[in-house]
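Notes from the 1:1 (GR / supervisor)

We went over the backlog. Supervisor wanted to see one worked example end to end before approving the batch request, so GR pasted a single chain during the call. The sequence is below; no edits were made to it. Supervisor asked that the structure be written out right there so they could see what the output format looks like.
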Amino acid sequence: MKKMGFIIACIMGLAAFVHAADTPAIDWQDTTTDTWHGFPRHRFIVDGCAAWVVTPPTPAPGNPWVWCMEFPEAFDNRTGVVPLVKAGFYYIHISVGNTYGAPSAQAHLDAFYKHITAKGLNAKGTLIGVSRGGLYAYGFAKRGPERVVCIYGDAPVCDIKSWPGGKGKGKGSPNDWANLIKIYGFKDEAEALAYSGNPIDESALKPLKDAGIPLIHVVGDVDAVVPAAENTAIVEKKYKELGGTITVFHKPTCDHHPHGLDDPAPVVELIKTYTEQRKGKQP
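Structure output shown during the call:
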């Protein structure tokens, strides 16, 4: 058995070597290059927005990727992105400003997706929605579920009434609430409160379930900013009722921070598994 395991490991290693040798390096036509956790990071402009791609030492077959929609360098040692890059995933981001996942922001996200797939990254990838990034991730996914492997929400905002609206038990953010109403183009607060395109709403969840997209959430059970009861718990209940797959990791004594897990290995393994199960083709 040990000999067989050694042979299998050698074959897998050879396959990875052959893939790396046969796959030409992507020319990102970057304006600058720096490093992120020791990995090369290519910086460039897409649709008028600053964007970057971290390249793995040896890209995994199919060029998989993870995309942190907001706060891509916050708690990145706890969200699993470092081991994913080591495992061959590209790590990507485009800065669209504090726009709460509004339609204007989604247009920039679409342009970035077209750019990275045209360059050779996989047609499907994992979206990471940290805090308000949940609005960006779910907004992107519901409009094009064929582009998504899975969604990893980390203390994600799933209802604008909860944050920044503060209409439940959460603290809310009056300034952000006023900005959101303006950026979304709502005529007043009443129209914002009646909005039915939140991640908790069936209009957002059903397209994901129909596409078989699994969800992963990490939450602090005493989160006073984005209360789990008003956000993730509702998503979990509704997604299961629709027949979807969702895994929720609870941190019993954790508030909104720190994001991620002390040991992010369980999230990393789920993303790897879902990526393998839901392989997309390179363009």
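Supervisor's comment: The chain has a mean pLDDT of 92.
Batch request approved.
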